[in-house]
């Protein structure tokens, strides 16, 4: 994507900004949470202290020569950023680097006895085991008698609002729109999304997952429905190859979520059976591509991933972080067309996301104005607004006309 002067890349160096607060406050808090959750030894605690000093006051350091992913990070910009403050490089890059360094500190990268022990697992498990999850799964029973279109839309909204860890299974956002001066759903291309997935579907849905637990469960339910109803012949679920951004889903989290679904009473277990069978016969596959944890926008994706997305009927990106990577982590004017910023994509793409960072595109002028009038800029990061956006074509000319 061209470096557009009207949409600067977001950095974390502006005191008082949301990105600055993530680097200066959220990351130290995450280090503390992880320290408290595990019986780590002196070496790990020392490494966590060093990470705390580095991420708040230090500079980016090189990876050890024997790090298994050193070549990847060399290609992802590490040489250019080494020696610079964490605050002065792209915020997306700094955040990803934080999680990579955290995994080193706790021994996840190994070798050693702590290799592969997910430092965020206790938090993910707690969410999956929460009583709220039972209530949300029980709500599936109420969907059983509805026409297929309504079930599909309810499950789409469950997956969307699951990004806020709130599986409301909203049948529509219309009531929310009537209630609030600023709409809860700030863009709704739901019809366009389902038009790409008709019930005669012979194609492949790629779902690029975001969080585990109460977001991954409704993502899986949506996939189960689309496969079961013939809206997709195959599905590919992209998860993270290693723990990331605290709650991001890995393959282990998919297994936990499926087992949770299978053990639930009522309709939920039926969805689990569909998914289990689809995994067994290959209609559903799980992928953990290294680029899923890259500190870069999807415009920079490698050729193999591009080919995979190109072959899909639709690639559906879940969540805020994937949205930032899909459109580029820039301060776009909110009315910048979504089709323009995703014009590099090799096939149809959709985003399902609650708004949790400053990045947004594709709003109508009226919606953008209503949001600002009601909430100043708080709507961008509060997680109380959401969007469904779809682009079916490359359209870089939209961007040039901005
Ligand atoms: O889980 P999600 O929806 O990707 O949100 C993660 C978001 O959390 C943050 O890391 C910090 O709030 C954002 O930078 C990021 O976009």
Automatic annotation (TrEMBL):
Please list the residue ranges annotated as the Damage-control phosphatase ARMT1-like metal-binding domain: 23-367
A single GO BP term for this record reads: DNA damage response
Could you confirm whether the keyword Hydrolase appears in this record? yes
- What is this protein called in UniProt? Damage-control phosphatase ARMT1-like metal-binding domain-containing protein
**Family membership:** Belongs to the damage-control phosphatase family. Sugar phosphate phosphatase III subfamily.
Reaction catalysis annotation: beta-D-fructose 6-phosphate = dihydroxyacetone + D-glyceraldehyde 3-phosphate; beta-D-fructose 1-phosphate + H2O = D-fructose + phosphate
Keywords of the record, alphabetical order, are: Hydrolase, Manganese, Metal-binding
Q: Which GO terms describe its molecular function?
A: metal ion binding; phosphatase activity
Top-level taxon: Bacteria
Reported cofactor(s):
Mn(2+)
> What Pfam families does the entry give?
ARMT1-like_dom
Q: From what organism does this protein derive? A: Streptomyces monashensis
């Amino acid at each position: 994507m061209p470096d557009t002067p009207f949409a600067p890349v977001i950095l974390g160096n502006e005191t008082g900004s949301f990105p600055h607060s993530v680097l200066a406050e959220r990351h130290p808090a995450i280090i503390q949470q992880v320290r408290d959750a595990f019986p780590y030894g002196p070496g790990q605690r020392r490494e966590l202290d060093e990470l705390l000093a580095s991420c708040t006051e230090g500079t980016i350091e090189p990876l050890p020569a024997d790090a298994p992913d050193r070549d990847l990070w060399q290609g992802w910009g590490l040489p250019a950023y080494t020696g610079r403050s964490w605050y002065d490089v792209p915020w997306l890059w700094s955040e990803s680097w934080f999680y990579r360094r955290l995994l080193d500190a706790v021994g996840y990268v190994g070798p050693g006895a702590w290799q592969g022990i997910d430092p965020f697992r206790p938090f993910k498990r707690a969410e999956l085991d929460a009583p709220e999850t039972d209530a949300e799964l029980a709500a599936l029973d109420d969907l059983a008698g509805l026409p297929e279109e309504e079930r599909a839309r309810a499950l789409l909204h469950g997956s969307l609002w699951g990004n806020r860890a709130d599986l409301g299974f909203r049948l529509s956002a219309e009531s929310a729109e009537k209630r609030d001066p600023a709409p809860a759903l700030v863009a709704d291309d739901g019809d366009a999304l389902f038009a790409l997935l008709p019930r005669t579907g012979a194609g492949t849905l790629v779902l690029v997952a975001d969080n585990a637990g109460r977001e991954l469960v409704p993502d899986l339910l949506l996939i189960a429905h689309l496969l079961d109803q013939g809206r997709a012949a195959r599905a590919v679920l992209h998860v993270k190859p290693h723990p990331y951004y605290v709650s991001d889903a890995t393959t282990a989290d998919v297994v936990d979520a499926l087992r949770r679904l299978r053990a639930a009473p009522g309709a939920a277990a039926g969805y689990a059976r569909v998914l289990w069978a689809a995994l067994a016969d290959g209609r559903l596959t799980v992928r953990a591509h290294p680029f899923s944890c890259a500190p870069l926008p999807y415009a920079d994706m490698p050729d193999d991933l591009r080919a995979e997305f190109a072959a899909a009927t639709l690639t559906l990106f879940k969540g805020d972080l994937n949205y930032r990577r899909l459109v580029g982590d820039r301060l776009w004017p909110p009315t910048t067309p979504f089709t323009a910023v995703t014009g590099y994509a090799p096939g149809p793409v959709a985003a399902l996301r609650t708004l949790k960072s400053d990045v947004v595109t594709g709003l109508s002028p009226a919606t953008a104005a209503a949001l600002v009038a009601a909430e100043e800029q708080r709507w961008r990061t509060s997680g109380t607004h959401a969007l469904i956006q779809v682009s079916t074509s490359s359209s870089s000319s939209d961007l040039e006309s901005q």
